Predict the structure.
Amino acid sequence: MSRLWYVDCPECDQGRLFVQRKSGSSDLFLECEECYVAWNHPAHVGRESEGYLSIDIPSEDATKEDIVAAGWMMYSFHVSQD
Ligand SMILES: [Zn+2]
């Protein structure tokens, strides 16, 4: 299963920010695999006031189709085979 990620987490510098889709929704967010800090938009990543803890939010791995639907294609994402 390939997963999409955006950049290394600016909060902890250890994890990557994976693109997640909230369960039952088309809303995407970017979630750190290590510290679970999240942002709702790639343009907000690193803004302390926009970051939140995502650990209790049910979500699925976002697909390329989800990213197109969210209008995020101008951002570049990495593919992980984890
Ligand atoms: Zn982190």
